[in-house]
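Q: For a teaching session next week I want to show students how multiple molecules come together into a single three-dimensional assembly. I've collected the sequence lines for a complex. Could you give me the predicted structure tokens for the whole thing so I can convert them for display?
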Amino acid sequence: MSDQQRNQRHTQRMQRKKELIDAGVARADKDKGLILINTGNGKGKSSAGFGVVARALGHGMTVAVVQFIKGSFQTGEENFFRRFPDEVEYHVMGEGFTWDTQNRERDIATAMVAWEKAEQLLSNPTIDLVLLDELNIALKMGYIPLDRVLAALRDKPEMQHVVITGRGAKDELVEIADTVTEMREIKHAYKAGIRAQKGVEL
Amino acid sequence: MSDQQRNQRHTQRMQRKKELIDAGVARADKDKGLILINTGNGKGKSSAGFGVVARALGHGMTVAVVQFIKGSFQTGEENFFRRFPDEVEYHVMGEGFTWDTQNRERDIATAMVAWEKAEQLLSNPTIDLVLLDELNIALKMGYIPLDRVLAALRDKPEMQHVVITGRGAKDELVEIADTVTEMREIKHAYKAGIRAQKGVEL
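A: Of course. Below is the structure for the complete assembly, covering every listed component.
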């Protein structure tokens, strides 16, 4: 096949692809506040949530973050997004991972304080995007009643976007979400003896 | 089982978990610039890359971004991260998705300009993190020679981190990466007729 033929075929294939994509775009004409879930055992669940925060800020939107489980060590994303107090309301409610505290009652109390903050945010239409980081873990541990979470999501402002992260997303949450991604671990540096690297994982 | 028993069991289980995790942490004692790949057909590949950018900036690191394919529309993350020209070097090299241009030769030329910029960044030890957004697509389309990408990654500064995104990551890339995550689509709003939402997907 000559270069010219290859280029022609490429153009034809891309024209067909463009037609299909344009038709899809024409069909997808609804606007809606989305519920996104990032789950699975791989990396990138929280990172993707914080990437969406950056994207929303780039459009002049207002953002609120609640971190449910982390909190015993200062993380890079917290350092960074706290630079913008007028645009990002940032709450870190957890007291470290649950195997650090080893105290179920205290963990439940902490999780419920975080959840009540989240409920306020989910009923505030002036906040365009709410990131509920590691909420899935708190749900999986049974620290927060699933019913209350489902009710708050059902009643949220129509155009508000919500991102929920953490492994082990509950089926009922997946059910009411608009977009659900499973982050699957294919390979992890940690297993090769490399500790969590500042700026990448912390 | 009484509440007290349940709490005791929880404490014991978490103590065992903490021992396991602490032992893992003790084993993982290497520091290294990581190569991370976010691939798969689900959402969150680029978002997770930009989340890592935010995290790195929170640690005072310097960052460079090359966007290989996007570029015909202004995206939120570009708006946002261009606010920090002293900390983030931002290059958008693509001219829209390849089915918009429908011109293979021009796409190759554009991709190679972007790649040459990436090569400069990957040999600059003053840059702590390089995000090569949608590089996988450019590789999959055959626009950039895989050998050159592998060579640049092998020779990069030892402590520099690199994040590569895009579906269809090449096996050879997965091979030399430290951490690879597959974003799997479980559910996507677009298929329910909801168009890409500003702040979340754009």
